[in-house]
Amino acid sequence: MDGKNLRKEWLPFLVALTGIVLSAIFAHFLGYHIEAYLDLLDAIKHHLPWLSFVIGALISLLLAIITKTALLAKARTRSLDETNESLRKEISERAEVEESKQKLEVALRQGQKLQAIGTLAGGIAHDFNNILYAIIGYIEMARDDVDKESTVYKNLGKVLEATARGQELVSRILAFSRRQHHQHDVVNLRKTIEAALSLLRPTIPASVTIKFEPEIDPWILANQTQLHQIFVNIINNAVDAMDDEGQITIYLSRIPANDPLLKAFPANEAQPYCRIDIVDTGHGMDQPTMERIFEPFFTTKEVGKGTGLGLSIVHTIIKEHRGEISVESLLGRGAKFTILLPEQDHSEQQGEHHGQNTTG
After folding, report:
1. Rounded to an integer, what distance in angstroms lies between the CA atom of residue 280 and that of residue 209?
2. What superfamily in CATH does domain 182-358 come from?
3. Which residues share a beta bridge with 337?
4. Which are the contacts of 126, defined by CB distance < 8 A and separation ≥ 6?
């Protein structure tokens, strides 16, 4: 314990001791000079009323000053508290604005990167597709010149199968690199998810559990086939991340037009959105991986087990539907994909059910 704290502890005892000593001195003085004290009282006894009045007035003035000082101190304390609260609120708002600004900058850089890569990939895909057409043509002519039962014919057939896979890859690259015209209809999102899951369940291991927990039954303007692609790609990635064992939970809810979550996407319209959360119990991702998962050709799978186009196509489809997608994850704690899609007013369903062409 330092000397300062020691002084604080002994201060009340020191004050009390000082009071006792002064009282003893006063009593001693009064005992030895009682006659002088009585003579003084006899001399001023005619003036006691006025003296009492003056002393009372002085005491009242002193109490008034003390009270006023206490009120001023309390008011100052309240003012300081209000100022501190205002400063804390301002600092908090500035921190939120700065965080939102950083998220927007990251999203802008990500969008520019994806656009540049998409343009480059599209050009390469076109050229590669032309090469594939030439290869396919020459292989088919070569097959016409050999016996159908020969080994050469069968080997050329394997080459044709490989070129077909190459064409499929090219089509996926082109789907990513440009927003195509798709027929959009007013569809029931809940039923669409249920239909996609019914198709997916037979293809995934029995050790993986899929739970669907909808809170709403919304309608959206979308292409049903593309919506199926979204769930197929995300869920298949989740199954791979869980090493074919774990649980995937899909939540469906609504967020209002003034929800704080929408502040991170200022380009979007102020309207209600359907929120889809897809949560898995996989091994999770680190921050560098999360920053690149929507890039084309980026994959954490082994060579030959993935093209890295699945999530990039998901990103393109969601953007075409005027929606947003984000991901949260920690290593060892799984991942959560959050998808926002504009909700369609159910009263408009009959008027728009025949479909609309949109470019996203």
Report:
1. 10
2. Histidine kinase-like ATPase, C-terminal domain (3.30.565.10)
3. 278, 327
4. 174
